[in-house]
Each structure stands twice: as C-alpha cells, then as structure tokens.
Amino acid sequence: MDLRTRIDLRDPVAPALDDLELLGRNHVADQGVAGGDFVDVVRATWGTALTIGDVCGKGHSVANDAGAARLTLRRLMSADPNPAAALAALNSLLSPAAQPGPVRGHDARYVTAVAAAVRTSRLGRDVTVAVGGHPRPLVLRRAGRTEIMGSTGPIIGWFADGRFTTMTCPLWPGDTLVLYTDGCLGTEGADEGRLARSMARLTTAPLAEIAGVLEADLTTDDAAFLLARVR
C-alpha cells in the first residue's frame, strides 16, 4: 500500500470485546484542520491488536496518510501478532530500501506509533508492544503500581534500516494498558514519567475518570489515547 495514495478513511467499527473494556478518544485541536493522530482496535484469530500513532503535520493529506498507516498496521497485525514486524513493514513503505540512513525531503512523511498484541497466556493474558519513536505505553496495575513499558525505537520512515524491538509483560484482571500520543503529555517539558506519576492514583479508577485526567491536560496539539482494561 502506498501511504501517499488517497483512500477511504471511514473508521471500521471497533469490536465488542468480552475480555477487554475499551475507551478511546481522538482530539483534533483545530476543528478546521484535519489531524494526523489515529487509534485502532481489531479482534484477530490470535487475540486483540491495539495501535496508536501520529503522522507528522496537519491537513487532509496528513489525515489520509494517518488512515493509510492505521489500515496498514491493522492488516499486518491481524495476520501476525508481532508488533515489531508490523512497524518494520510500515517503515519499509515509508523509507526507500535502496537509500540507507535518514530519508528526508519535502515528500517525506514520518510516523510515530505503538503496536500492541494482547493474547491469552498460560497464566492469564499478556501484552507484547513495539514502539516507533512514540511515547511508551503505560500499564496501570490494579495493585497500585504504574509501569512504563517498552523501549523507544526509531521514528517510522526516518531510517530505511530502522530496527524495532518488542517487550512482553503479563496483564491481570483490573490492569489497564494506556496508549497515547504526545499531545496527551500536556504542557511543554512534560514527559512519560510525569504522566506515569499522575496516573498512579488512578490505577483502579473507572476508565472515564482516567480519560478525564488525560483530556484535562490537552493543549493546542492534536491528541489521541486508547485505554484497555482486562476484565
């Protein structure tokens, strides 16, 4: 799929899941200008794929590319629960393989994203994530801990030879996975650690309350988030 091709951007209906409680939002700061943030949830034969991402820039062409990136990750993750492979495949579409090193230019389109695979495991459920230049996911433990998950890989489309890694951790009933774009970090200078600390008191709160805290810090930037709690 060429990410620069105009496509149908109608969102597929998010599936109703018995094992996960879901809440997602996509906030466009300027209602007159389309944004590049996207979120997606898809039930696959192996489990559930969750993705979130941010295409650089604003405008209709950026929104088109965000839709294409979302649908590309949906197709890849539906077929194979390997988030690192999915990000690498998206990277190969954005980065000409014949050109090593950083790819720049007025036609370049860069994406940051997180792909996550939630599966049933021997002890319950686990989640495997890969991160491409994006804020790392949070895991809010029902027991009261907040964890930052994964390692930040390269921005997708920036390096033709980008490498992405995965991290897997267990999810227990009541645990909440938080995927978000940088617009949720609020004021300038905020970081993942600050957000994790602000979430520490909300580990058992209803998802709507967690969403309210995230939305309270939104600024003039576009923002999206996806909350997934194990039932």
Mean model confidence by pLDDT: 84
Low-confidence stretches are 1-14
Radius of gyration using CA atoms only? 17 Å
Helix content: 10-25%
Largest sheet: 6 strands, mixed
Distance between the termini: 36 Å
Order of helices and strands: EEEHHEEEEEEEHHE
**Tally of DSSP β-strands:** 11
Describe the protein in words.
By secondary structure, the protein is of the alpha+beta class. Helices cover 22% and strands 31% of the residues. The strands form 2 sheets. Strands 2, 3, 4, 5, 8 and 9 form a 6-stranded mixed β-sheet that branches. β4 and β5 form a beta hairpin. α1 crosses α2. The chain is globular, with a radius of gyration of 17 Å. The termini are far apart. The N terminus is likely disordered.
Which terms summarize this structure?
231 residues, alpha+beta, six-stranded mixed β-sheet, five-stranded antiparallel β-sheet, 4 helices, 11 strands, 31% strand, disordered N terminus
Please sum up the structure shown.
The chain is an alpha+beta fold and 231 residues long. It is built from 4 helices and 11 strands. Strands 2, 3, 4, 5, 8 and 9 form a 6-stranded mixed beta sheet that branches. Strands 1-11-10-6-7 form a 5-stranded antiparallel beta sheet, covered by helices on one side.
List the helices and strands and how they pair.
Blueprint: E1 20-27, E2 37-44, E3 47-55, H1 60-79, H2 83-94, E4 111-121, E5 124-132, E6 138-140, E7 146-148, E8 152-153, E9 166-171, E10 176-180, H3 192-199, H4 207-216, E11 223-230
Parallel strand pairs: 5-8
Antiparallel strand pairs: 1-11, 2-3, 3-4, 4-5, 5-9, 6-7, 6-10, 10-11
